[in-house]
Automatic annotation (TrEMBL), chain A:
The chain crosses the membrane at residues 37-59, 79-102, 123-147, 167-187, 194-214, 253-274. The keyword Endoplasmic reticulum does not apply. GO terms for cellular component: plasma membrane. This is ABC transporter permease.
TrEMBL record, chain B:
InterPro entries: AAA+_ATPase, ABC_transporter-like_ATP-bd, P-loop_NTPase. This is Multidrug ABC transporter ATP-binding protein. Residues 2-227 form the ABC transporter domain. SUPFAM superfamilies: P-loop containing nucleoside triphosphate hydrolases (SSF52540). Keywords: ATP-binding, Nucleotide-binding, Transport. The lineage of its organism: Bacteria, Bacillati, Actinomycetota, Actinomycetes, Micrococcales. GO terms for molecular function: ATP binding; ATP hydrolysis activity. It comes from Cellulomonas persica.
Amino acid sequence: MTATTLDAPAPAGDVRVTFPRLLRSEWIKLWSLRSTAWTLAITAVVIVGFVLLITWGMLDANEMSGNSEDVNALDAFGAVPYLGPTAVAVLGALTITGEYTTGMIRSSFAAAPRRLPVLWSKALVLAVVVFVTTALAVAVAASLQALMFGSRGASVDLGDPQVVRALIGNALYVTGIAVLAFGLGVLMRHSAAAITTTLGILLVLPILFSLIPWEPLQDLTPFLPNVAGSQITLTDAMIEQQAGFTGSVVLSAWQGFGVLLAYLVVVLAAGAWLTKRRDA
Amino acid sequence: MIEATNLTKRYGAKLAVDQISFRVEPGTVTGFLGPNGAGKSTTMRMIVGLDRPTAGHVTVNGKPYAEHHSPLTQVGALLEAKAVHTGRSARNHLRALAATHGIGEKRVNEVIEMTGLESVAKRRVGGFSLGMGQRLGIAAALLGDPRTLILDEPVNGLDPEGVLWVRNLVKYLASQGRTVFLSSHLMSEMAVTADHLIVIGRGKIVAAGPVKDIVAQGTRTSVRVVSPQAAQLAELLVGPEVSVTSDERGSLVVHGTTAPAIGEAAAAAGVVLHELTPVQGSLEEAFMSLTQDTVEYHSTMGHDVAPVAATGQEATR
Protein backbone atom coordinates (compact mmCIF):
# COMPACT_ATOMS: atom_id res chain seq x y z
CA MET A 1 0.00 0.00 0.00
CA THR A 2 2.63 2.47 1.08
CA ALA A 3 4.92 1.36 -1.73
CA THR A 4 2.28 2.04 -4.37
CA THR A 5 1.65 5.51 -3.02
CA LEU A 6 5.36 6.27 -3.12
CA ASP A 7 5.73 4.94 -6.64
CA ALA A 8 2.81 6.90 -7.98
CA PRO A 9 3.84 10.25 -9.45
CA ALA A 10 2.73 13.29 -7.50
CA PRO A 11 -0.55 14.30 -9.14
CA ALA A 12 0.12 18.03 -8.92
CA GLY A 13 3.55 17.84 -10.52
CA ASP A 14 2.38 15.68 -13.39
CA VAL A 15 -0.24 18.06 -14.72
CA ARG A 16 1.12 18.93 -18.14
CA VAL A 17 0.44 18.37 -21.83
CA THR A 18 1.75 15.14 -23.37
CA PHE A 19 0.97 13.54 -26.72
CA PRO A 20 -0.79 10.49 -25.24
CA ARG A 21 -2.97 12.88 -23.24
CA LEU A 22 -3.83 14.84 -26.36
CA LEU A 23 -4.81 11.54 -27.98
CA ARG A 24 -7.08 10.81 -25.05
CA SER A 25 -8.60 14.29 -25.28
CA GLU A 26 -9.28 13.83 -29.00
CA TRP A 27 -10.75 10.41 -28.31
CA ILE A 28 -13.20 11.99 -25.82
CA LYS A 29 -13.99 14.77 -28.28
CA LEU A 30 -14.65 12.36 -31.14
CA TRP A 31 -17.02 10.10 -29.25
CA SER A 32 -18.89 12.85 -27.44
CA LEU A 33 -20.41 14.10 -30.70
CA ARG A 34 -23.40 12.34 -32.18
CA SER A 35 -22.19 12.80 -35.75
CA THR A 36 -19.31 10.36 -35.13
CA ALA A 37 -21.47 7.37 -34.30
CA TRP A 38 -23.86 8.23 -37.14
CA THR A 39 -21.27 8.60 -39.88
CA LEU A 40 -19.43 5.45 -38.80
CA ALA A 41 -22.65 3.43 -38.56
CA ILE A 42 -23.74 4.62 -42.01
CA THR A 43 -20.33 3.67 -43.42
CA ALA A 44 -20.50 0.18 -41.93
CA VAL A 45 -24.08 -0.44 -43.03
CA VAL A 46 -23.38 0.80 -46.56
CA ILE A 47 -20.30 -1.44 -46.89
CA VAL A 48 -21.97 -4.60 -45.57
CA GLY A 49 -25.25 -3.93 -47.36
CA PHE A 50 -23.79 -3.26 -50.78
CA VAL A 51 -21.33 -6.15 -50.70
CA LEU A 52 -24.20 -8.54 -49.96
CA LEU A 53 -26.57 -6.97 -52.51
CA ILE A 54 -23.97 -7.03 -55.26
CA THR A 55 -23.02 -10.64 -54.51
CA TRP A 56 -26.68 -11.62 -54.71
CA GLY A 57 -27.10 -9.73 -57.99
CA MET A 58 -23.96 -11.22 -59.50
CA LEU A 59 -25.05 -14.75 -58.63
CA ASP A 60 -28.53 -14.23 -60.08
CA ALA A 61 -27.21 -12.72 -63.28
CA ASN A 62 -24.70 -15.52 -63.58
CA GLU A 63 -27.32 -18.24 -63.12
CA MET A 64 -29.82 -16.62 -65.45
CA SER A 65 -27.30 -16.38 -68.25
CA GLY A 66 -26.42 -20.03 -67.68
CA ASN A 67 -22.79 -19.21 -66.99
CA SER A 68 -21.21 -22.16 -65.27
CA GLU A 69 -18.13 -20.28 -64.10
CA ASP A 70 -17.95 -19.17 -60.46
CA VAL A 71 -18.35 -15.46 -59.77
CA ASN A 72 -15.39 -13.56 -58.33
CA ALA A 73 -16.63 -12.82 -54.81
CA LEU A 74 -14.06 -10.03 -54.42
CA ASP A 75 -15.79 -8.09 -57.24
CA ALA A 76 -18.64 -7.45 -54.83
CA PHE A 77 -16.25 -5.36 -52.73
CA GLY A 78 -15.74 -3.07 -55.71
CA ALA A 79 -18.48 -0.85 -54.32
CA VAL A 80 -16.53 -0.09 -51.14
CA PRO A 81 -14.09 2.45 -52.63
CA TYR A 82 -17.02 4.29 -54.23
CA LEU A 83 -19.56 4.31 -51.41
CA GLY A 84 -17.41 3.87 -48.31
CA PRO A 85 -15.59 7.22 -48.28
CA THR A 86 -18.62 9.52 -48.54
CA ALA A 87 -19.71 9.45 -44.91
CA VAL A 88 -16.19 9.27 -43.48
CA ALA A 89 -15.18 12.24 -45.65
CA VAL A 90 -17.86 14.21 -43.81
CA LEU A 91 -16.57 12.89 -40.48
CA GLY A 92 -12.95 13.71 -41.37
CA ALA A 93 -13.75 17.27 -42.37
CA LEU A 94 -16.05 17.91 -39.40
CA THR A 95 -13.41 16.67 -36.94
CA ILE A 96 -11.55 19.92 -37.49
CA THR A 97 -14.00 22.34 -39.15
CA GLY A 98 -16.54 21.69 -36.38
CA GLU A 99 -14.02 23.19 -33.97
CA TYR A 100 -13.45 26.24 -36.15
CA THR A 101 -17.10 26.99 -36.80
CA THR A 102 -18.10 26.67 -33.13
CA GLY A 103 -15.02 28.41 -31.68
CA MET A 104 -13.93 25.24 -29.84
CA ILE A 105 -10.57 25.54 -31.57
CA ARG A 106 -9.73 28.47 -29.26
CA SER A 107 -10.26 26.26 -26.22
CA SER A 108 -8.20 23.49 -27.82
CA PHE A 109 -5.32 25.79 -28.74
CA ALA A 110 -5.41 27.60 -25.41
CA ALA A 111 -4.99 24.21 -23.69
CA ALA A 112 -2.28 23.08 -26.10
CA PRO A 113 -0.76 26.26 -27.52
CA ARG A 114 1.82 24.45 -29.62
CA ARG A 115 -1.10 23.61 -31.87
CA LEU A 116 0.48 21.02 -34.19
CA PRO A 117 0.31 18.14 -31.66
CA VAL A 118 -3.43 18.86 -31.52
CA LEU A 119 -3.66 18.40 -35.30
CA TRP A 120 -1.59 15.20 -35.30
CA SER A 121 -3.51 13.64 -32.43
CA LYS A 122 -6.80 14.47 -34.17
CA ALA A 123 -5.60 12.93 -37.43
CA LEU A 124 -4.30 9.83 -35.67
CA VAL A 125 -7.46 9.21 -33.65
CA LEU A 126 -9.58 9.76 -36.76
CA ALA A 127 -7.44 7.42 -38.87
CA VAL A 128 -7.44 4.61 -36.30
CA VAL A 129 -11.18 4.84 -35.66
CA VAL A 130 -12.05 4.93 -39.37
CA PHE A 131 -9.62 2.11 -40.18
CA VAL A 132 -10.95 -0.16 -37.45
CA THR A 133 -14.58 0.57 -38.36
CA THR A 134 -14.03 -0.05 -42.07
CA ALA A 135 -11.92 -3.16 -41.48
CA LEU A 136 -14.59 -4.58 -39.19
CA ALA A 137 -17.31 -3.77 -41.73
CA VAL A 138 -15.32 -5.48 -44.48
CA ALA A 139 -14.77 -8.50 -42.21
CA VAL A 140 -18.46 -8.70 -41.37
CA ALA A 141 -19.34 -8.33 -45.06
CA ALA A 142 -16.95 -11.15 -46.00
CA SER A 143 -18.29 -13.42 -43.25
CA LEU A 144 -21.93 -12.80 -44.15
CA GLN A 145 -21.11 -13.26 -47.83
CA ALA A 146 -19.60 -16.67 -47.08
CA LEU A 147 -22.47 -17.57 -44.80
CA MET A 148 -25.24 -16.58 -47.21
CA PHE A 149 -23.72 -17.25 -50.61
CA GLY A 150 -20.79 -19.55 -49.88
CA SER A 151 -22.79 -22.60 -50.91
CA ARG A 152 -23.32 -21.03 -54.34
CA GLY A 153 -19.59 -20.51 -54.74
CA ALA A 154 -19.45 -16.80 -53.81
CA SER A 155 -17.05 -16.34 -50.91
CA VAL A 156 -13.67 -14.62 -50.80
CA ASP A 157 -10.62 -16.86 -50.42
CA LEU A 158 -8.94 -15.66 -47.25
CA GLY A 159 -6.09 -18.09 -47.89
CA ASP A 160 -5.01 -15.93 -50.84
CA PRO A 161 -2.69 -13.12 -49.61
CA GLN A 162 -3.70 -11.03 -52.63
CA VAL A 163 -7.34 -11.18 -51.57
CA VAL A 164 -6.50 -10.35 -47.97
CA ARG A 165 -4.39 -7.39 -49.10
CA ALA A 166 -7.24 -6.15 -51.28
CA LEU A 167 -9.75 -6.45 -48.44
CA ILE A 168 -7.52 -4.62 -45.97
CA GLY A 169 -6.81 -2.21 -48.82
CA ASN A 170 -10.46 -1.19 -48.73
CA ALA A 171 -10.05 -0.09 -45.12
CA LEU A 172 -6.74 1.65 -45.93
CA TYR A 173 -8.24 3.54 -48.86
CA VAL A 174 -11.34 4.69 -46.94
CA THR A 175 -9.07 5.82 -44.09
CA GLY A 176 -6.88 7.71 -46.55
CA ILE A 177 -9.89 9.62 -47.87
CA ALA A 178 -11.02 10.46 -44.31
CA VAL A 179 -7.58 11.93 -43.61
CA LEU A 180 -7.64 13.79 -46.94
CA ALA A 181 -10.95 15.39 -45.92
CA PHE A 182 -9.44 16.22 -42.53
CA GLY A 183 -6.44 17.86 -44.21
CA LEU A 184 -8.68 19.93 -46.47
CA GLY A 185 -10.69 20.87 -43.38
CA VAL A 186 -7.50 22.11 -41.71
CA LEU A 187 -6.75 24.23 -44.76
CA MET A 188 -10.24 25.62 -45.30
CA ARG A 189 -11.68 25.76 -41.76
CA HIS A 190 -15.24 25.68 -43.17
CA SER A 191 -17.33 22.51 -43.07
CA ALA A 192 -19.21 23.04 -46.32
CA ALA A 193 -16.10 24.07 -48.25
CA ALA A 194 -14.04 21.11 -47.03
CA ILE A 195 -16.78 18.53 -47.58
CA THR A 196 -17.67 19.88 -51.04
CA THR A 197 -14.03 19.94 -52.09
CA THR A 198 -13.42 16.37 -50.92
CA LEU A 199 -16.53 15.02 -52.62
CA GLY A 200 -15.65 17.05 -55.71
CA ILE A 201 -12.23 15.39 -55.83
CA LEU A 202 -13.80 11.97 -55.38
CA LEU A 203 -16.83 12.24 -57.63
CA VAL A 204 -16.43 15.14 -60.06
CA LEU A 205 -12.74 15.27 -60.99
CA PRO A 206 -12.55 11.72 -62.49
CA ILE A 207 -15.64 12.40 -64.63
CA LEU A 208 -14.32 15.79 -65.68
CA PHE A 209 -10.96 14.30 -66.62
CA SER A 210 -12.57 11.62 -68.75
CA LEU A 211 -14.98 14.04 -70.48
CA ILE A 212 -12.49 16.68 -71.54
CA PRO A 213 -10.80 15.35 -74.67
CA TRP A 214 -7.35 16.65 -73.90
CA GLU A 215 -4.60 14.06 -73.82
CA PRO A 216 -2.58 15.32 -70.79
CA LEU A 217 -5.71 15.01 -68.62
CA GLN A 218 -6.09 11.36 -69.58
CA ASP A 219 -2.44 10.81 -68.67
CA LEU A 220 -3.03 12.41 -65.28
CA THR A 221 -6.19 10.47 -64.44
CA PRO A 222 -4.35 7.50 -62.83
CA PHE A 223 -2.74 9.97 -60.44
CA LEU A 224 -5.97 11.44 -59.10
CA PRO A 225 -6.18 10.80 -55.33
CA ASN A 226 -9.08 8.37 -55.53
CA VAL A 227 -8.07 6.65 -58.76
CA ALA A 228 -4.53 6.06 -57.47
CA GLY A 229 -5.54 5.33 -53.89
CA SER A 230 -8.16 2.72 -54.75
CA GLN A 231 -5.65 0.51 -56.60
CA ILE A 232 -4.88 -0.96 -53.17
CA THR A 233 -8.39 -2.45 -53.11
CA LEU A 234 -7.63 -4.64 -56.17
CA THR A 235 -5.59 -7.81 -56.49
CA ASP A 236 -2.58 -7.75 -58.80
CA ALA A 237 -4.54 -9.92 -61.23
CA MET A 238 -7.36 -7.37 -61.36
CA ILE A 239 -4.85 -4.57 -61.91
CA GLU A 240 -3.33 -6.52 -64.82
CA GLN A 241 -6.78 -6.92 -66.32
CA GLN A 242 -7.26 -3.17 -65.95
CA ALA A 243 -4.05 -2.58 -67.92
CA GLY A 244 -5.66 -4.52 -70.76
CA PHE A 245 -8.27 -1.91 -71.59
CA THR A 246 -6.57 1.37 -70.83
CA GLY A 247 -3.87 3.08 -72.78
CA SER A 248 -2.55 5.20 -69.93
CA VAL A 249 -0.30 4.29 -67.01
CA VAL A 250 -1.58 1.69 -64.56
CA LEU A 251 -0.21 2.06 -61.06
CA SER A 252 0.42 -1.00 -58.91
CA ALA A 253 -1.47 -1.36 -55.65
CA TRP A 254 1.22 0.14 -53.45
CA GLN A 255 2.36 2.72 -56.01
CA GLY A 256 -1.22 3.97 -56.15
CA PHE A 257 -1.58 4.08 -52.40
CA GLY A 258 1.79 5.84 -52.22
CA VAL A 259 0.42 8.56 -54.52
CA LEU A 260 -2.56 9.02 -52.18
CA LEU A 261 -0.19 9.22 -49.20
CA ALA A 262 1.85 11.84 -51.05
CA TYR A 263 -1.29 13.96 -51.46
CA LEU A 264 -1.96 13.56 -47.73
CA VAL A 265 1.56 14.66 -46.83
CA VAL A 266 1.28 17.76 -49.02
CA VAL A 267 -2.19 18.75 -47.75
CA LEU A 268 -1.31 18.13 -44.09
CA ALA A 269 2.01 19.95 -44.36
CA ALA A 270 0.30 22.99 -45.90
CA GLY A 271 -2.39 22.78 -43.21
CA ALA A 272 0.18 22.56 -40.43
CA TRP A 273 2.11 25.52 -41.77
CA LEU A 274 -1.04 27.64 -41.94
CA THR A 275 -2.29 26.48 -38.53
CA LYS A 276 0.95 27.56 -36.92
CA ARG A 277 0.77 30.99 -38.53
CA ARG A 278 -2.91 31.84 -38.47
CA ASP A 279 -4.80 33.51 -35.66
CA ALA A 280 -7.20 31.08 -34.05
CA MET B 1 2.20 38.15 -13.60
CA ILE B 2 1.52 39.21 -17.17
CA GLU B 3 3.99 41.49 -18.89
CA ALA B 4 3.38 43.06 -22.30
CA THR B 5 6.03 45.03 -24.13
CA ASN B 6 5.18 47.16 -27.16
CA LEU B 7 2.45 44.70 -28.04
CA THR B 8 0.99 45.50 -31.46
CA LYS B 9 -1.66 43.83 -33.59
CA ARG B 10 -2.64 44.93 -37.06
CA TYR B 11 -5.54 43.39 -38.98
CA GLY B 12 -5.07 44.52 -42.55
CA ALA B 13 -5.30 48.30 -42.47
CA LYS B 14 -6.73 48.42 -38.97
CA LEU B 15 -4.38 48.84 -36.06
CA ALA B 16 -6.25 47.00 -33.30
CA VAL B 17 -3.55 47.24 -30.64
CA ASP B 18 -0.89 49.91 -30.89
CA GLN B 19 2.39 49.34 -29.06
CA ILE B 20 0.97 48.81 -25.61
CA SER B 21 3.12 47.95 -22.61
CA PHE B 22 1.65 46.99 -19.27
CA ARG B 23 2.04 44.69 -16.32
CA VAL B 24 -0.57 42.74 -14.40
CA GLU B 25 0.60 42.05 -10.85
CA PRO B 26 -0.22 38.93 -8.82
CA GLY B 27 -2.62 39.12 -5.90
CA THR B 28 -4.69 41.90 -7.38
CA VAL B 29 -7.69 42.22 -9.62
CA THR B 30 -6.63 44.24 -12.60
CA GLY B 31 -9.39 45.63 -14.74
CA PHE B 32 -8.98 46.14 -18.45
CA LEU B 33 -11.39 48.89 -19.31
CA GLY B 34 -12.26 50.31 -22.66
CA PRO B 35 -15.10 50.89 -25.10
CA ASN B 36 -16.11 48.12 -27.51
CA GLY B 37 -13.50 47.69 -30.22
CA ALA B 38 -10.75 49.27 -28.16
CA GLY B 39 -8.49 46.21 -28.43
CA LYS B 40 -9.24 44.41 -25.15
CA SER B 41 -10.14 41.03 -26.61
CA THR B 42 -7.31 41.14 -29.12
CA THR B 43 -4.83 41.83 -26.34
CA MET B 44 -6.19 38.95 -24.28
CA ARG B 45 -6.05 36.57 -27.24
CA MET B 46 -2.41 37.56 -27.78
CA ILE B 47 -1.60 36.81 -24.14
CA VAL B 48 -2.72 33.18 -24.53
CA GLY B 49 -1.13 32.80 -27.96
CA LEU B 50 -4.31 32.61 -30.00
CA ASP B 51 -3.45 35.72 -32.01
CA ARG B 52 0.09 36.31 -33.14
CA PRO B 53 1.34 39.83 -32.33
CA THR B 54 2.39 41.92 -35.33
CA ALA B 55 5.16 43.33 -33.13
CA GLY B 56 6.23 43.30 -29.50
CA HIS B 57 5.76 40.40 -27.10
CA VAL B 58 3.92 39.30 -24.02
CA THR B 59 4.93 36.86 -21.30
CA VAL B 60 2.98 35.02 -18.62
CA ASN B 61 4.91 34.25 -15.44
CA GLY B 62 8.15 35.00 -17.25
CA LYS B 63 7.64 32.95 -20.41
CA PRO B 64 5.57 33.21 -23.58
CA TYR B 65 2.35 31.29 -22.94
CA ALA B 66 3.07 28.62 -25.58
CA GLU B 67 6.37 27.71 -23.92
CA HIS B 68 4.74 26.53 -20.70
CA HIS B 69 4.51 22.75 -20.38
CA SER B 70 1.33 23.02 -18.42
CA PRO B 71 -0.52 26.01 -19.89
CA LEU B 72 -3.81 25.42 -18.09
CA THR B 73 -2.15 25.62 -14.69
CA GLN B 74 -0.50 28.90 -15.69
CA VAL B 75 -3.46 30.68 -17.22
CA GLY B 76 -7.15 29.98 -17.20
CA ALA B 77 -8.85 32.02 -19.86
CA LEU B 78 -12.46 32.86 -20.52
CA LEU B 79 -12.47 34.38 -23.95
CA GLU B 80 -15.07 36.70 -25.36
CA ALA B 81 -16.97 34.52 -27.80
CA LYS B 82 -18.17 31.03 -26.98
CA ALA B 83 -15.29 28.61 -27.40
CA VAL B 84 -17.24 25.40 -27.03
CA HIS B 85 -18.50 22.85 -29.54
CA THR B 86 -22.28 23.20 -29.47
CA GLY B 87 -22.86 19.49 -30.03
CA ARG B 88 -20.98 18.35 -26.94
CA SER B 89 -22.24 18.24 -23.36
CA ALA B 90 -20.74 20.64 -20.83
CA ARG B 91 -19.23 17.73 -18.92
CA ASN B 92 -17.60 16.18 -21.97
CA HIS B 93 -16.24 19.56 -23.00
CA LEU B 94 -14.53 19.89 -19.63
CA ARG B 95 -13.38 16.25 -19.69
CA ALA B 96 -11.76 16.73 -23.10
CA LEU B 97 -9.91 19.85 -21.96
CA ALA B 98 -8.87 18.26 -18.67
CA ALA B 99 -7.55 15.20 -20.50
CA THR B 100 -4.94 17.27 -22.36
CA HIS B 101 -3.18 17.90 -19.04
CA GLY B 102 -4.00 14.63 -17.30
CA ILE B 103 -6.37 16.43 -14.97
CA GLY B 104 -8.74 13.88 -13.41
CA GLU B 105 -12.50 13.53 -13.28
CA LYS B 106 -12.44 14.71 -9.67
CA ARG B 107 -11.37 18.20 -10.70
CA VAL B 108 -13.94 18.22 -13.52
CA ASN B 109 -16.66 17.54 -10.96
CA GLU B 110 -15.24 20.22 -8.68
CA VAL B 111 -15.39 22.98 -11.28
CA ILE B 112 -18.88 21.89 -12.33
CA GLU B 113 -19.95 22.23 -8.72
CA MET B 114 -18.12 25.54 -8.22
CA THR B 115 -19.86 27.09 -11.19
CA GLY B 116 -23.28 25.66 -10.38
CA LEU B 117 -23.57 23.62 -13.57
CA GLU B 118 -24.53 20.27 -11.98
CA SER B 119 -28.08 20.26 -13.31
CA VAL B 120 -27.09 21.01 -16.93
CA ALA B 121 -23.70 19.29 -17.16
CA LYS B 122 -25.07 16.46 -19.27
CA ARG B 123 -26.95 18.70 -21.66
CA ARG B 124 -25.55 19.76 -25.00
CA VAL B 125 -23.98 23.21 -24.93
CA GLY B 126 -25.95 24.34 -28.00
CA GLY B 127 -29.03 24.82 -25.85
CA PHE B 128 -27.29 26.87 -23.17
CA SER B 129 -28.28 30.42 -22.29
CA LEU B 130 -25.59 33.09 -22.47
CA GLY B 131 -25.26 32.97 -18.69
CA MET B 132 -24.80 29.17 -18.65
CA GLY B 133 -22.22 29.52 -21.43
CA GLN B 134 -20.32 32.05 -19.33
CA ARG B 135 -20.37 29.73 -16.33
CA LEU B 136 -19.06 26.90 -18.47
CA GLY B 137 -16.30 29.18 -19.78
CA ILE B 138 -15.35 30.06 -16.21
CA ALA B 139 -15.43 26.37 -15.23
CA ALA B 140 -13.01 25.63 -18.08
CA ALA B 141 -10.76 28.49 -16.97
CA LEU B 142 -10.62 27.07 -13.43
CA LEU B 143 -9.83 23.48 -14.52
CA GLY B 144 -6.08 23.74 -14.11
CA ASP B 145 -6.31 25.66 -10.82
CA PRO B 146 -4.33 28.37 -12.64
CA ARG B 147 -2.05 31.00 -11.17
CA THR B 148 -3.40 33.57 -13.57
CA LEU B 149 -6.96 34.11 -14.73
CA ILE B 150 -7.89 36.06 -17.81
CA LEU B 151 -11.57 36.81 -18.07
CA ASP B 152 -12.90 38.67 -21.08
CA GLU B 153 -16.21 40.33 -20.22
CA PRO B 154 -17.07 37.68 -17.61
CA VAL B 155 -20.34 39.26 -16.48
CA ASN B 156 -21.73 39.54 -20.00
CA GLY B 157 -25.15 37.95 -20.13
CA LEU B 158 -25.26 37.08 -16.44
CA ASP B 159 -28.25 37.86 -14.26
CA PRO B 160 -27.69 40.04 -11.16
CA GLU B 161 -27.09 36.95 -9.05
CA GLY B 162 -24.50 35.72 -11.55
CA VAL B 163 -22.80 39.12 -11.63
CA LEU B 164 -22.46 39.07 -7.85
CA TRP B 165 -21.14 35.52 -8.03
CA VAL B 166 -18.43 36.47 -10.56
CA ARG B 167 -17.50 39.53 -8.51
CA ASN B 168 -17.01 37.48 -5.34
CA LEU B 169 -15.24 34.68 -7.16
CA VAL B 170 -12.80 37.10 -8.73
CA LYS B 171 -12.02 38.75 -5.41
CA TYR B 172 -11.62 35.37 -3.73
CA LEU B 173 -9.22 34.15 -6.41
CA ALA B 174 -7.12 37.29 -6.11
CA SER B 175 -7.05 36.98 -2.32
CA GLN B 176 -5.39 33.57 -2.79
CA GLY B 177 -2.51 35.37 -4.47
CA ARG B 178 -3.55 34.71 -8.05
CA THR B 179 -3.27 37.18 -10.87
CA VAL B 180 -6.67 38.19 -12.16
CA PHE B 181 -7.04 40.18 -15.33
CA LEU B 182 -10.56 40.96 -16.40
CA SER B 183 -11.94 43.15 -19.11
CA SER B 184 -15.17 45.05 -19.24
CA HIS B 185 -16.77 47.99 -20.92
CA LEU B 186 -18.90 48.47 -17.81
CA MET B 187 -17.28 51.04 -15.58
CA SER B 188 -19.62 50.46 -12.69
CA GLU B 189 -18.58 46.80 -12.61
CA MET B 190 -14.90 47.73 -12.56
CA ALA B 191 -15.41 50.27 -9.80
CA VAL B 192 -16.57 47.51 -7.44
CA THR B 193 -14.40 44.63 -8.64
CA ALA B 194 -10.97 45.90 -9.66
CA ASP B 195 -8.06 47.20 -7.60
CA HIS B 196 -6.01 48.32 -10.54
CA LEU B 197 -7.09 49.56 -13.91
CA ILE B 198 -5.66 49.64 -17.37
CA VAL B 199 -7.76 51.89 -19.57
CA ILE B 200 -7.51 51.31 -23.30
CA GLY B 201 -8.95 53.35 -26.14
CA ARG B 202 -8.37 52.83 -29.85
CA GLY B 203 -5.63 50.31 -29.21
CA LYS B 204 -3.61 52.58 -26.94
CA ILE B 205 -3.37 52.65 -23.19
CA VAL B 206 -4.76 55.95 -21.99
CA ALA B 207 -4.29 55.39 -18.25
CA ALA B 208 -3.05 52.74 -15.84
CA GLY B 209 -2.83 52.54 -12.06
CA PRO B 210 -4.92 52.05 -8.93
CA VAL B 211 -8.62 52.76 -9.43
CA LYS B 212 -8.39 55.81 -7.08
CA ASP B 213 -5.60 57.39 -9.12
CA ILE B 214 -7.40 56.84 -12.40
CA VAL B 215 -10.46 58.58 -11.06
CA ALA B 216 -8.32 61.47 -9.81
CA GLN B 217 -6.44 61.67 -13.09
CA GLY B 218 -9.43 61.45 -15.33
CA THR B 219 -11.74 63.82 -13.55
CA ARG B 220 -11.25 67.32 -12.31
CA THR B 221 -12.32 67.45 -8.71
CA SER B 222 -14.84 70.20 -8.31
CA VAL B 223 -16.22 72.11 -5.36
CA ARG B 224 -19.86 73.01 -4.98
CA VAL B 225 -20.39 76.37 -3.31
CA VAL B 226 -23.69 77.91 -2.23
CA SER B 227 -23.64 81.53 -1.25
CA PRO B 228 -26.11 84.48 -1.21
CA GLN B 229 -23.24 86.52 -2.72
CA ALA B 230 -22.51 84.00 -5.45
CA ALA B 231 -21.82 86.52 -8.21
CA GLN B 232 -19.29 88.41 -6.07
CA LEU B 233 -17.57 85.16 -5.06
CA ALA B 234 -17.39 83.96 -8.68
CA GLU B 235 -15.60 87.13 -9.72
CA LEU B 236 -13.22 86.68 -6.82
CA LEU B 237 -12.31 83.10 -7.70
CA VAL B 238 -12.02 83.16 -11.49
CA GLY B 239 -8.45 83.01 -12.73
CA PRO B 240 -6.29 81.33 -15.35
CA GLU B 241 -6.41 77.99 -13.50
CA VAL B 242 -9.87 78.29 -12.05
CA SER B 243 -13.21 78.09 -13.83
CA VAL B 244 -16.58 78.72 -12.30
CA THR B 245 -19.94 77.63 -13.63
CA SER B 246 -23.32 78.44 -12.23
CA ASP B 247 -26.28 76.20 -12.82
CA GLU B 248 -28.78 77.81 -10.50
CA ARG B 249 -29.16 81.03 -8.56
CA GLY B 250 -26.76 81.19 -5.64
CA SER B 251 -24.98 77.92 -6.48
CA LEU B 252 -21.55 77.58 -8.08
CA VAL B 253 -19.43 74.68 -9.32
CA VAL B 254 -15.75 75.56 -9.08
CA HIS B 255 -13.04 73.68 -10.93
CA GLY B 256 -9.29 74.05 -10.43
CA THR B 257 -9.01 74.96 -6.79
CA THR B 258 -9.68 73.35 -3.44
CA ALA B 259 -12.41 73.79 -0.84
CA PRO B 260 -10.02 75.26 1.81
CA ALA B 261 -8.73 77.85 -0.70
CA ILE B 262 -12.29 78.89 -1.57
CA GLY B 263 -13.21 79.11 2.12
CA GLU B 264 -10.21 81.29 2.88
CA ALA B 265 -10.84 83.56 -0.09
CA ALA B 266 -14.48 83.96 0.96
CA ALA B 267 -13.54 84.74 4.57
CA ALA B 268 -10.97 87.32 3.48
CA ALA B 269 -13.59 89.08 1.33
CA GLY B 270 -16.31 88.73 3.95
CA VAL B 271 -18.52 86.55 1.71
CA VAL B 272 -21.08 84.39 3.45
CA LEU B 273 -21.03 80.66 2.56
CA HIS B 274 -24.01 78.33 3.00
CA GLU B 275 -22.38 75.28 1.54
CA LEU B 276 -18.85 74.23 0.58
CA THR B 277 -18.61 70.64 -0.73
CA PRO B 278 -15.74 68.93 -2.56
CA VAL B 279 -17.24 66.66 -5.26
CA GLN B 280 -15.27 63.52 -6.14
CA GLY B 281 -15.55 62.45 -9.79
CA SER B 282 -16.85 58.99 -10.59
CA LEU B 283 -15.08 56.28 -12.55
CA GLU B 284 -17.74 56.84 -15.17
CA GLU B 285 -16.63 60.41 -15.69
CA ALA B 286 -12.97 59.44 -15.62
CA PHE B 287 -13.56 56.83 -18.27
CA MET B 288 -15.51 59.14 -20.51
CA SER B 289 -12.95 61.90 -20.32
CA LEU B 290 -10.04 59.51 -20.82
CA THR B 291 -11.44 57.69 -23.82
CA GLN B 292 -13.16 60.69 -25.38
CA ASP B 293 -9.79 62.20 -26.23
CA THR B 294 -8.72 59.17 -28.19
CA VAL B 295 -12.00 58.98 -30.04
CA GLU B 296 -12.01 62.66 -30.94
CA TYR B 297 -8.39 62.59 -31.99
CA HIS B 298 -9.02 59.75 -34.42
CA SER B 299 -12.16 61.17 -35.96
CA THR B 300 -10.30 64.44 -36.65
CA MET B 301 -7.50 62.50 -38.30
CA GLY B 302 -9.97 60.72 -40.49
CA HIS B 303 -11.68 63.84 -41.80
CA ASP B 304 -9.09 66.56 -42.04
CA VAL B 305 -5.58 65.23 -42.15
CA ALA B 306 -5.95 61.81 -43.71
CA PRO B 307 -2.91 62.15 -46.00
CA VAL B 308 -0.74 63.09 -43.04
CA ALA B 309 -2.00 60.08 -41.11
CA ALA B 310 -1.10 57.86 -44.04
CA THR B 311 2.47 59.17 -44.25
CA GLY B 312 2.71 58.81 -40.52
CA GLN B 313 1.94 55.12 -40.83
CA GLU B 314 4.53 54.71 -43.58
CA ALA B 315 7.09 56.24 -41.28
CA THR B 316 6.38 53.85 -38.42
CA ARG B 317 6.80 50.77 -40.62
